[in-house]
Amino acid sequence: MNRPEHSSRLIPIPDVQSEHDDRHLAIDQVGIRGLKHPLLFADGGARPQPTVAQCSLYVALPAEQKGTHMSRLVALVEERAAASTPLTVVNFRTLVDEMVARLGAPAGSIELQFPFFVRKTAPVSGVASLLDYDVTLKGELADGRYTETLRVAVPVMSLCPCSKEISDYGAHNQRSLITLTVRTHAPIALAELLRFAEEEASAELYGLLKRADEKYITEYAYDHPRFVEDLVRGVAGRLAAEPRVAAFAVEAENFESIHNHSAYARIARGL
């Protein structure tokens, strides 16, 4: 089979994205979303842990430019994942800065969603297991101003104070989800935010429990009843008193065990 001969002279490939667009409409955000990629994340001074992030990267596109260079966004994630230094809340901004510079964009934002694991020790047996938390890290650079928000969803247990008060024995309880979203003056570790939520709940959750642990947690929750209102007020009070936190939102959802609907509450300050 004969193959066509190739000239040794390089033929330039058109850069269509950089062509001029005459519709005079700037685009606020253009980029990629839903890209799943492994990365190494470190929380504060803790040991780095591998995870898989769902990545969304966007830049602002000037009115005169036809398109952005999507491949450069994927390449940026590839390079970050291959770097020897793990991603942290502190160095996340460098990723946003690099994206904006590489694409010559006036503004841009990156959002990473990933599971974060904590090894927890059961309260009585001492057996250790991992518990996962959903984390979202978002950084945005616009008009020379950088903002970063950190969101973590914390599963906990809540026991109804009303049910405890009116029942001759027992009280209904359920798994709840407390979501903290914060913008900070100074870095704050994920582990600290998790504790804010877990310590305000009726009880915290564990991946693995023995019978003695189950007894302890059931009785502990009975002694610490919480409405959904109590959950958000307790966590919001802690965040409001934390000098590193500039703005926050706290949400709580109780997946009711005696209803086919959830109970929900939210407190926000500055977000």
- Looking at the overall shape, the CATH architecture is Roll
Tell me the number of helical segments per DSSP (H or I, 4 or more residues long).
6
The CATH superfamily appears as Urate Oxidase
| Regions with little confidence, pLDDT below 50 for 5+ residues | none
Average pLDDT, to the nearest integer? 93
Radius of gyration: 24 Å
**What's the CATH first level?**
Alpha Beta
What is the overall shape? elongated
User: Helicity, in percent?
Assistant: 10-25%
Strand element count = 9
Features:
single chain; 271 residues; alpha+beta; Urate Oxidase; 9-stranded antiparallel beta sheet; 6 helices; 9 strands; 25% helix; 39% strand; elongated
Characterise the protein shown here.
It is a single chain. α1 packs antiparallel against α2. The longest helix is centred in the first third of the chain and has 13 residues. The chain has six helices and nine strands, in the order ββααβββαβαβααββ. A hairpin with a 6-residue loop joins β8 and β9. The protein has a single domain, classed as Urate Oxidase. Strands 1, 2, 3, 4, 5, 6, 7, 8 and 9 form a nine-stranded antiparallel beta sheet that branches. With 271 residues, it is α+β, with helices and mostly antiparallel strands. It starts with 26 loop residues before the first strand and ends with a strand. 27% of the residues are buried. It is 25% helix and 39% strand. The model has no long low-confidence stretch (mean pLDDT 93).
Short description:
The protein has helices at residues 70-82, 92-103, 161-166, 190-199, 211-223, 228-240; strands at 27-41, 49-61, 107-121, 128-142, 145-159, 173-184, 203-204, 245-255, 262-269. With 271 residues, the chain is an alpha+beta fold.
